[in-house]
Amino acid sequence: MLNLPLQSCKNSAYFCNFLNYDPYVLMFKDPKLVLAIFTVAIVWGTTFLGIRMAVETIPPWFVAGIRQLIAAGLLLIILLFSKQLKWIGWKNFRIQIIFSILMLIVANGMTTVAEEHLSSSLASLISATSPILVFIGSIFFGLQKFTYRSLFGILMGFSGILLIFKDGFQDLLDPDYRMGVIFIFIAICGWTLGSILTKKMKLQHQNISLNLFYQFAFAGVAQIALAFIVSNEIDVATWSYKSMAATVYLAVFGSVAAYFAFHFALKKISPTQISLLSYVNTIIAIFLGWLVLDEKITAAFITATVLIICGVFITNYQKGMFQRK
């Protein structure tokens, strides 16, 4: 171990710069930031497994609706305790309804429906391509600049998708599997539109907890209504304790704890740096699907995972993304 006097640091500009500006050195000096980052990486990586376990015995729209209502209830308690609960006005309320429809009812809801037909590993891997679609949409709306590097990343990511289905086109003849694939792509489109609107309308600095409360509450009511409409028969007695526990886990940790951890981390490190956790989420989701649910992972699937993760990284890479915020 080097034992240099403090004055010697002045003789090494690089060493000083590393100590003073590297976000990952500073990260481990802040236990709260470490906890927030691990919460986001691990919890959001487990949500695909949680959804798959929840829909084993509970209809998917009930899973999604109950999840949002529990999350809304928890946020209501937090807002009341912190005296931040207030009416946001009709204009902002309409905006939150739009985001609730796109990112909770469509993105989260359709992902939950899709996992009734797809493995958690496949659902997580296809969902991992959403940053690429966000980037393409951002170019269309003038929020990102096109580069040949991004084009290479996009092509790499979609080559991973093609590899997934290369030997599985016959599976698309199965109507359940086909509908699962369609649902997951609808979910990705909802998330993409919501993400682009967030960028375009510059809503990142508004009261996140208050807005999320209105979003969760509206989505929960809407999804429960959908559940009663589309469910052929509702027999709560068939809902297993495992599925109910998974639904509660998704609400408490997946919807509330992870969101708070995410926004806490954003105060310390840049959005681009924390977006790197999405790659960890995908790996965790695939590993847990294999470990807990005995989902089949082939060499082609692993290759597709590498292609998609590398494609997303190349597409979203920005100069200086590893520098301190």
Please provide a written account of the structure.
It is a single chain. With 325 residues, the chain is mainly α. The protein has one domain. It is 74% helix and 0% strand. It is built from 14 helices and no strands. It has helices spanning 13-21, 23-27, 31-54, 60-81, 90-114, 120-127, 130-140, 148-166, 175-201, 208-230, 241-266, 271-275, 277-293, 299-316. Helix 4 packs antiparallel against helix 5 and helix 5 (90-114) packs antiparallel against helix 9 (175-201). The protein is globular. 40% of the residues are buried. The model is unreliable at 1-24 (pLDDT under 50).
User: Can you give the helix content as a percent range?
Assistant: over 70%
Q: Which parts are unreliable, with pLDDT below 50 for 5 consecutive residues or more?
A: 1-24
Average the pLDDT over all residues and give the rounded result.
82
> Secondary-structure element order, as H and E?
HHHHHHHHHHHHHH
Whole-angstrom Rg:
21 Å
How many DSSP-defined strands? 0
In short:
The protein is mainly alpha-helical and 325 residues long.
Features:
single chain; 325 residues; disordered N terminus; mainly alpha
Summarize the topology.
Blueprint: H1 13-21, H2 23-27, H3 31-54, H4 60-81, H5 90-114, H6 120-127, H7 130-140, H8 148-166, H9 175-201, H10 208-230, H11 241-266, H12 271-275, H13 277-293, H14 299-316
Helix pairs in contact: 3-6, 3-11, 3-13, 4-5, 4-10, 4-11, 5-9, 5-10, 6-13, 7-9, 8-14
